[in-house]
Amino acid sequence: MENSKLIALLRTFDASELRAFKDFVAAPYFNKKGEVCRLYAYLKKIAANDFPAPKLQRATVFAAIYPNQACDERQLNYTMSLLLKLAEQFVGLQQYENWGIVPDYQVLKSSVERHLDKNYQYQFQQAKEKVERAAYRNEDFFFNVICLPT
């Protein structure tokens, strides 16, 4: 398990990302499986020691997630796969949220599609101010200006 994609990705998380990912995994909107929460809780606990190899032995991890059950490689692989997908989704959402005006544009687009004129006007003003407050007039600034509907 030490060389898995899941552990490789989790090793890149800083302390604040590990905390935020805990909430993400526990959110019923994204995950309804208790074993995935237990796997992450176990991995988060050993992350502080940089995921020591003995603690990543498959039988040890399985026993932490499924106490009093015989080790089932297939079940562990499935649970790890679910957690990896959540971690990738988490990273993707973090990147999306930090992508300038694009998330705001999607909200504006949704307001237009739902015929929410009052919401659109407020959201448009907020997005416009965000672009105007940009510290640099670089490619990101101009991309955001182009994305902002008029």
Largest sheet: none
- What is the radius of gyration computed over CA atoms, rounded to a whole number of angstroms? 21 Å
Shape: elongated
Provide a count of the helices: 8
Strand portion: under 5%
Rounded to the nearest angstrom, the distance between the terminal CA atoms is 51 Å
The residue-averaged pLDDT reads 90
Secondary-structure-derived class: mainly alpha
Percent helix, as a range, is: 55-70%
How many structurally independent domains? 2
DSSP strand tally: 0
Could you give the order of the helices and strands?
A: HHHHHHHH
Low-confidence blocks of residues: none
Task: Give a description of the structure.
The protein has 150 residues and is an all-alpha fold. The chain folds into two domains: 5-97, no CATH class; 102-147, no CATH class. Helices cover 68% and strands 0% of the residues. Helix 6 runs antiparallel to helix 7.
Task: Give the gist of this structure.
About 70% of the residues lie in helices and about 0% in strands. The chain is mainly α and about 150 residues long.
Helices and strands in order:
Blueprint: H1 5-10, H2 15-26, H3 34-47, H4 58-65, H5 73-97, H6 102-113, H7 117-132, H8 139-147
Helix pairs in contact: 2-3, 3-4, 3-5, 6-7
